[in-house]
Specification:
Elements: E1 2-5, E2 14-20, E3 28-33, E4 37-42, E5 55-61, E6 69-71, E7 83-84, E8 86-91, E9 96-97, E10 102-109, E11 116-121, E12 124-125, E13 133-136, E14 143-149, E15 155-156, E16 160-161, E17 165-166, E18 169-170, E19 175-178, E20 181-183, E21 186-191, E22 194-197, E23 204-206, E24 211-216, E25 219-222, E26 226-228, E27 233-238, E28 271-274, E29 285-288, E30 291-293, E31 299-300, E32 305-306
Parallel strand pairs: 7-15, 9-18, 19-22, 20-23, 21-24, 22-25, 23-26, 24-27
Antiparallel strand pairs: 1-4, 1-6, 2-3, 2-5, 8-10, 10-13, 11-12, 11-14, 14-16, 14-17, 28-29, 29-30, 31-32
Length: about 300
C-alpha cells in the first residue's frame, strides 16, 4: 500500500496494521508506523498464516500531526515463480489373494522438507495413515488414494490428490510357492493346501526386525534357502479352523538368535529337532516338550508332524 503521515512540529500520528485469518479470530499486529513519512511511500508487509479467508485492518491514531493517508491497497503473492506439487501411489501387489497385507507407497514432487500425507480408502480418511507408506489388508474394489500437503515455498496445486489404486482381491490360493524374497517388515502368506518356501536354488530370508507368518491347510515345506536372521520372526502353522491371513494375527513367541531358530506357539507344546544343521547319514532326534520321541519314529499322529528324508 501507499502511505504518508507527515508530522506537525513535534506531533506525529501513528498507523497500525492488523490481520486475522478467521471471522471469529483475534486481531494480531502486523506492523506499526510511528515516524514521519513526509511523502507518498510504498509499504510492503509479508502476510503470515495464509488461509482462504483473510482480514486486514488499518488503525489510525491521531496525535495532532498532518493526518494519516493510505491508498492503493493490494494483496498479492510474493512469488515470482511457482513449482507444482504432485503425488502418485503404487501398491506392492495387485491383484492379491484374500487376507494379504499390501504396502502402498507414495512418490511426490515438490513436497518441501516436511510434507504431510493423508491416506484414504474409498474417500474416507484412514486414522493415523499420515506417512509416505501405508499398509493394509484390502477388500475387493477398495479405492486407495493419498492427499499430499506440501510445505514447499511458492508451490501450486497444493494440496493435491494422487491417482486411485483400485484393489482386486481374489480367493485363497490352493498352493503357494514363496521364493527369492527378503522380509524386512511384516508379511503373512497362506494357502488352502500347501506352502513351499525357497528351494531349487532360491531363497527366503526374514531380516532382523522382520516377521513372517505362514498359514496352510495341510503342509508347509521349508526347503534349503530358508533363513531367519538374528532378531527375525518366523511362525508357520496348519490352520484347524479355516482362519487365514487377515482374520487372525497369531502370536510369535521366539526371536531368532545367533545360536538357534525356533518356532513356538504360545501356550502349546513344541518340537525341537536336533542336531540342526546336520550332515547326511546322521539320525535326527525329536523332542516334544520334555519328552524325547524314539528314534526311527517317522510320524507323530497327535501333532501331525511328519519327518521326511
Amino acid at each position: 500500500f501507499w502511505h504518508t503521515q507527515p508530522q506537525w512540529s513535534t506531533d506525529q500520528d501513528i498507523l497500525s496494521v492488523y490481520y486475522k485469518n478467521a471471522a471469529g479470530g483475534v486481531w494480531a499486529l502486523l506492523a506499526t508506523y510511528t515516524a514521519t513519512v513526509p511523502s507518498w511511500t510504498q509499504e510492503t508487509i509479508a502476510l503470515p498464516n495464509a488461509s482462504a479467508t483473510y482480514y486486514i485492518a488499518f488503525e489510525g491514531n491521531a496525535k495532532f500531526g498532518y493526518g494519516i493517508c493510505f491508498d492503493d491497497v493490494q494483496v498479492a503473492n510474493g512469488c515470482e515463480n511457482f513449482v507444482t506439487a504432485g503425488i502418485s501411489i503404487a501398491a506392492s501387489m495387485n491383484p492379491v489373494y484374500q487376507g494379504t497385507m499390501v504396502t502402498n507407497t507414495a512418490t511426490i514432487t515438490n513436497g518441501g522438507p516436511a510434507p504431510s500425507y493423508q491416506w484414504k480408502v474409498d474417500a474416507a480418511n484412514v486414522p493415523g495413515a499420515t506417512n509416505s507408506v501405508f499398509s493394509n489388508v484390502p477388500s475387493s474394489n477398495d479405492g486407495i488414494t493419498c492427499v499430499l500437503i506440501s510445505n514447499e515455498a511458492c508451490v501450486a496445486n497444493n494440496p493435491c490428490t494422487s491417482n486411485t489404486v483400485v484393489m482386486s482381491v481374489t480367493g485363497l490360493p490352493l498352493n503357494s510357492s514363496i521364493q527369492d524374497m527378503n522380509i524386512t517388515g511384516s508379511g503373512c502368506f497362506n494357502a488352502f493346501e500347501t506352502i513351499t518356501v525357497a528351494g531349487s536354488g532360491s531363497s527366503f530370508t526374514v531380516e532382523t526386525g522382520g516377521s513372517a507368518t505362514m498359514i496352510a491347510g495341510q503342509k508347509i515345506s521349508y526347503l534349503p534357502g530358508t533363513l531367519v536372521q538374528p532378531g527375525g520372526y518366523l511362525h508357520g502353522y496348519i490352520t484347524t479352523d479355516g482362519i487365514y491371513c487377515g482374520n487372525l494375527m497369531p502370536s510369535i513367541a521366539s526371536v531368532a538368535d545367533s545360536a538357534e531358530s525356533r518356532v513356538q506357539d504360545v501356550g502349546q507344546p513344541f518340537f525341537k529337532i536336533y542336531p540342526n544343521p546336520t550332515h547326511g547319514g546322521k539320525k535326527h532326534r525329536i523332542r516334544h516338550g520334555n519328552q524325547e520321541i524314539a528314534p526311527g519314529m517317522q510320524k507323530i499322529a497327535a501333532s501331525g508332524l511328519e519327518m521326511c528324508e
